[in-house]
Structures are given as C-alpha cells and as structure tokens.
Amino acid sequence: MKDFFSHIILGNSIESYAIVSGIILIMFVFKKYLSRYIARILFRFMNKAGSQVRREPFVKLVLGPLQLFLMIAVIMLAIGQLNFPPELNFKVYRINLQGLADSIGAAILIIALIWLLLRVIDFIALVMEEKANLTEDLSDNQLIVFFKDFFKVIVVIIGILLLIRFTFQKQIGPLLTGLSIVGAAVALAARESLENLIASFIIFFDKPFTLGDLVKVQAVTGTVERIGLRSTRIRTDQKTFVTVPNKQMVDSLLDNFSLRTHRRGELRLELNSQTPSDDVKKLIDKIKELLKNGYSIGFINASVYLTDVNRNGIVVLVEYFTEPISMDVFNQVRERFNFDVLKLLEDHEIKLAMPKVEM
Question: Is the terminal CB of the chain with fewer CB neighbours within 10 Å at N or C?
C-alpha cells in the first residue's frame, strides 16, 4: 500500500493527489457551513453600523459569492502544492498551459471577490435605506441610490485593473498613465455624459426635487421615481416612463408642483350684456358668501370681481386658493363649486353671454 501511494504520476505521487483531492472534497462538502460562519463574523463588524441591522439579509446576500471565493481560493492553494506536469506544459497561443491555468484561476478569484464586495455594498445600501425611511426627507433615499451606484462603478473599475494585473500580467502604472491621456480624449468626446454626471451632483446637493416629487420639465410632467448618475426617470400622468438627462433637469426651467404652498382655482363667468347691474351685484355677493361659508375645506384669499363690461357681455372673474391638497380632492371641490355657481345663475335667472357668430 505504501508503494502504491508513493507511485509517481505526471510528476506527483498518488499520495499528493489524494491529499489535494481530499482537501477539495472537504471544502466542497463544508463550504456552505464555513461560508455561513464567516458571513456571521463579517456581520458582527457590519452590525456596528447600527442596532437595526438584521443578520439574515446580509448572510443571504454574501453567501453565494463567499462560497465561490472560498472554493476557488482553496482549489488554487491545494493545486499549487502539486508540481505541474512537464508533459502538459505546452504552449497555447504563445502562453504555456501552466500560466494559462494560473491566470484563469486568478481571474475567477478576482471576479468572486468583486461579486462579494458588490453584495456588501448592496447590504450597506439596504441598511442605510431602512434608516432613511424613518425620516420624512426623501433626499436621503436618493443619495443612497446615487452613492450605491457610484461605489459599485469604482469597485468594478478596481476589479478590471486587478484582472489586467494578475490575469494578463500587465503593469498597471504605465497603463494608468496611458489611460489618463486616453481619459482626457474620452472626456472631450463624452462631454455630454460628464455634464450629466456633474448635473447629478448638483441635483443631490442643491435638491431642486427629490424622489416622489411631481415635477414639470420642458414638456414632461410626472413623478420622479429614480435619480441616477446620468438621467432622471419620471413616471408621467399617462403612466409612461420617461428618461430625462440630468443636464436638462438642471438647465431647463423646472416646476416642482410638490413644493407648492397652495392650489389655485379660477372661474370666468361671461354674463349676458343685458343682465341688470343689481342682479350682477347680488350674484357676486352670493358667490363671495359661498366661498366664505360653503365648504369645509376652506378657501384662502378668495376674490370675486367684475372685471370687464363690453358689448359682448359682462365678465365676472372668480379666483380662489386652497391648501396643497391632492389633485383628486381639489377636482372634487372645484366641481362642487362650479355646480353651486351654476345653481346661483339659475336661481337668479341670469344667462351667460352667447358666443359671437362670425359671418
């Protein structure tokens, strides 16, 4: 039996193969438990961020990439103890098979590490979002979404640089120098994208609007559902999903309806020119009384004026303001008020001006 394990195959003894295979098999069997244990240790550090952090969401997020990372790391360390068979060390496109295998292993390991870091960022964003939901200010939520995407981009860039360094065996220093020159040229070519990125920072710090605000920019009116690095997504009143570049959100004239202090209503009455002045005066007084006492919602700064008298008719303008109630409630109040005014016209037998017919 001893001679059997001492037998050499492809530059390594059977005993060495058995040990390496045993380590890999043990790791394969216990990777889930080991990963869960390490995830709980990592959670203890993460839990210092606040007492409201829950363990299971964190473990669920990092368990998959952590298992892959540990499995690849153990396989590489175990196989690294074996001598690479000279018989198999032939070249593939001027690269020997041993170097190719090492590069593939390093690439998978780096990808698993980047995947793990991205999941950690997702969890941190989840924790911060739960805390932000406890406050009434929605700007905290949009900052979390923005910086989550921002740090993910940074991690991915670092991962690409690590892949270039350890997979393709290229020096990063000269590459970064070359990239700085190329980056300047790309910056000029991608000026609009950079302007949108800068505009996103302006949005987050100047806060002309936040998530959930009802805004109008150019010809688009809707609710802000997402603010990204390049664009803002708006759900319109037609239930379509419009993407507006951040530069336009900053440079264009933007009306934030959610920041209004009042809602304005207007009713223009064009009475028949033959209407007696006493009837017009009574109608105005009745409308004023209606605005003052007729509704539980209450009107603010309501006014009724006789604004014009001409051969085509007598113009009475009604203008009123309410608290910033919802549009649905406002439409109901406006409809009821219009019906009440129509009833006043009927009670006083006042007719509206007839449209002038062009001959």
Answer: C
CA angle 337, 338, 339 (to 5 degrees): 90
Q: 8-9 and 12-13: which strand pairing?
A: antiparallel
CB atoms within 10 A of CB 100: 13
User: Per the confidence metrics, is the pTM higher than 0.90?
Assistant: no
Taking residue 347's Cβ as centre, other Cβ atoms within 10 Å add up to 11
Answer yes or no: are the C-beta atoms of 352 and 270 closer than 8 Å.
Answer: yes
| Pairing outcome for strands 263-271 and 12-13 | unpaired
Report the alpha-carbon distance of residue 37 to residue 67 in Å, rounded.
11
Q: Which residue has the tokens 């040990």?
A: 19
Q: What tokens were used for 18?
A: 């058995």
First to last CA, the chain: 118
Query: Percent of the chain at pLDDT above 90?
Result: 8
DSSP 135: S
| Mean pLDDT rounded to a whole number for the chain | 79
Reduced DSSP (H G I as helix, E B as strand, rest coil) percent helix, strand, coil of the chain, to 5: 60, 20, 25
The answer to whether 241 and 183 have CB atoms below 8 angstroms apart is: no
- pLDDT, tens digit (0-9, with 9 covering 90-100), for 23-49: 888 888 888 888 888 888 777 776 665
Which residues lie closer than 8 Å to 75 by C-beta, 6 or more apart? 24, 27, 105
pLDDT tens profile 214-244: 899 988 899 998 888 788 999 998 889 999 9
